[in-house]
Amino acid sequence: MKLIMESWRGFIDEEADPAKVDPKRFPKELSKVDIKLARKYTRSGSPAIDKAGDDDEINVAPTADDGISVKVLKPSQSSMNIKKAMQFVVQMLHPKGALKPGGNLGAFISKDNYIMDGHHRWISTGMIDPNLGIGGYKVNFPAPELIAVLNAITKGRLGIQKGKPASGGFDQFTEDNILAQLTNMAAKGHPWGNLTAEQVMEALETYSGQQGEAAITAAAQKLAANLGELTLAAPGFAPEREDMPVIDKDQVAGALQIAVNALQKGEVDVNPPYGAGGGQEHGEETGTGEQLGAEDWEAIAAGQRKAAE
């Protein structure tokens, strides 16, 4: 009977258990991730290496077409630049703008509704209308453990060794600062060069329902009021921006899909028993002779070149 039960367990679909993620193997801070170990740990969960079944698979699924309401989502970082956010807002408000409010960010969203990236798009959409949804990939893992796993992928699969710099906190987002940014663009035009001062005013007048200078003030008031419906506090478990994951297609082509595949296929060895090459303890070298593919090395090299620029 014991042998039958053990055989049966091998056929049961499992999912990775976040409670079993070892923080020594998967630090929450990007700067503490050892790239050599991360290369192993982000591959040794593969079924070809780890014979424990599906114990490392993490379910990842696209969100619904209308996304998740921005007022339901929570930030995993507090570092945002109000100047950049307000530039996003104005682009979203004008029909000829380069951005639209809401939509698919192509970012990861944790099981507990923390966004891992796309924070400027999130807060800009929320200022315009907190009921709008943004989408991406919903990951069936809570934010603290997801940050750690994505940090391992950042270094181990993408070769990106440095996080993005911080650029200020939520305290920047006051009505006065919003008004100052809008006033500047209404006078000088949008700094991206695709919207004139007149077009900026058109956008603010349409949004606020006011005309002339009154539209700038009314728009600032409306945008600031909508901020009140958002969660404007980073969680205590999140590291500083520089130590957060970087799953960035601008640094490594196909970065998002590489990460999605690694999570879905259980390639990241997040749960014991660990696969050969992953080591039974943090830092243990087992030397299985596992070879990295040409695409893996190309992605790693590209990330390292970009990080060094």
Number of domains: 1
H/E element sequence: HHEEEHEEHEHHHHHH
Total helices: the number is: 10
Q: Report the biggest beta sheet as strand number plus sense, adding barrel if it closes.
A: 4 strands, mixed
Overall shape: it is elongated
The proportion of residues forming helix, as a percent range, comes to 25-40%
As a whole number of angstroms, the C-alpha radius of gyration is 22 Å
Structural class: alpha/beta
Low-confidence stretches: 1-13, 279-292
Strand fraction: 5-15%
Question: Which whole number gives the mean pLDDT?
Answer: 87
Question: How many β strands by DSSP?
Answer: 6
Q: Could you tell me how far the N terminus lies from the C terminus, measured between alpha carbons in angstroms?
A: 61 Å
Describe the structure concisely for a colleague.
The chain has 309 residues and is α/β, with parallel strands linked by helices. It has helices spanning 2-9, 35-41, 82-93, 119-128, 143-156, 175-188, 197-208, 213-227, 255-264, 294-308, and strands spanning 60-62, 68-69, 74-75, 103-109, 114-115, 133-139.
